Amino acid sequence: MLKKRVIPCLDVKDGCVVKGVRFQNLRQLDEPGSLAEKYMEEGADELVFLDISASSERRTTQMEWVRAVADRIFIPFTVGGGIDSVKTAKEIISLGADKISLNTRALEDPNLIRECALLLGNQAVVLAVDAKMTGEGRWEAYAGGGTVPTGRNAIEWIEEGCSLGAGEVLLTSIDRDGTDSGYDLKLIEAARNAVSVPIIASGGAGKLQHFVEALKAGADAVLAASVFHFGIYNIAEAKDALAEAGFPIRRTW
């Protein structure tokens, strides 16, 4: 049985890690390299970095912080935000990232998923989906860092993205983001029933039990920011909770 993963998320804006609630009211924390090294030492399985203002500012990912992170850590990490071409994706991988995450640009041009998968391999292409509930059992995919409604059914978009070559889904609930109220379990279940690729649950972690609930709902990995950034829990505590619930995890202590 594949081990379940615990993944801190670092949202980057203007070269600094930030955190907000429902993608709003951002607070500055630290520079990406320092936090990345801290989480690696704590036992994080992977890291996800999202340049959250790149798409709304219509620019590509700032490569300086990607290079700085790659120089300081030796665990897998994913970079997303502002990846608008195969060329940009290839450059990010060449700097040391293991995966690239596609969201806004893929919604505009779904063929970008196929092109990146053909060049880098499916395992290196993560489809990031920011989903907002529109009704019982229905969610809409948002672009532009969770600020632009697209009118697209989020679950249908996940199915399409995976059929085009995405090898993993980073699924974020906009409604739960930064609220500490728990993951949107129905959203996770709907995505799990739609595709077979690994799903990273994101948005809403506030208690250790929330991590367990997300995996029980069908996620393969749990991603969180606030609870780790603000010292509410550390990586080891999260993994201990998963192990106690019967899930296989990678231990580094």
TrEMBL record:
Gene3D superfamilies: Aldolase class I (3.20.20.70). Pathway: Amino-acid biosynthesis; L-histidine biosynthesis; L-histidine from 5-phospho-alpha-D-ribose 1-diphosphate: step 5/9. It is found in: Cytoplasm. Pfam families: His_biosynth (PF00977). It comes from the Bacteria. It is an enzyme of class 4 (lyase). The active site is at D11, D130. Coiled coil: none annotated. Its main location: cytoplasm. One of its GO terms (molecular function) is lyase activity. Keywords: Amino-acid biosynthesis, Cytoplasm, Histidine biosynthesis, Lyase. GO terms for biological process: L-histidine biosynthetic process. InterPro entries: Aldolase_TIM, His_biosynth, HisF, IGPS_HisA/HisF, RibuloseP-bd_barrel. One of its GO terms (cellular component) is cytoplasm. Its EC number is 4.3.2.10. It catalyses: 5-[(5-phospho-1-deoxy-D-ribulos-1-ylimino)methylamino]-1-(5-phospho-beta-D-ribosyl)imidazole-4-carboxamide + L-glutamine = D-erythro-1-(imidazol-4-yl)glycerol 3-phosphate + 5-amino-1-(5-phospho-beta-D-ribosyl)imidazole-4-carboxamide + L-glutamate + H(+). Belongs to the HisA/HisF family. IGPS catalyzes the conversion of PRFAR and glutamine to IGP, AICAR and glutamate. The HisF subunit catalyzes the cyclization activity that produces IGP and AICAR from PRFAR using the ammonia provided by the HisH subunit. Heterodimer of HisH and HisF. PANTHER family: IMIDAZOLE GLYCEROL PHOSPHATE SYNTHASE HISHF, IMIDAZOLE GLYCEROL PHOSPHATE SYNTHASE SUBUNIT HISF/H IGP SYNTHASE SUBUNIT HISF/H. This is Imidazole glycerol phosphate synthase subunit HisF. The gene is hisF.
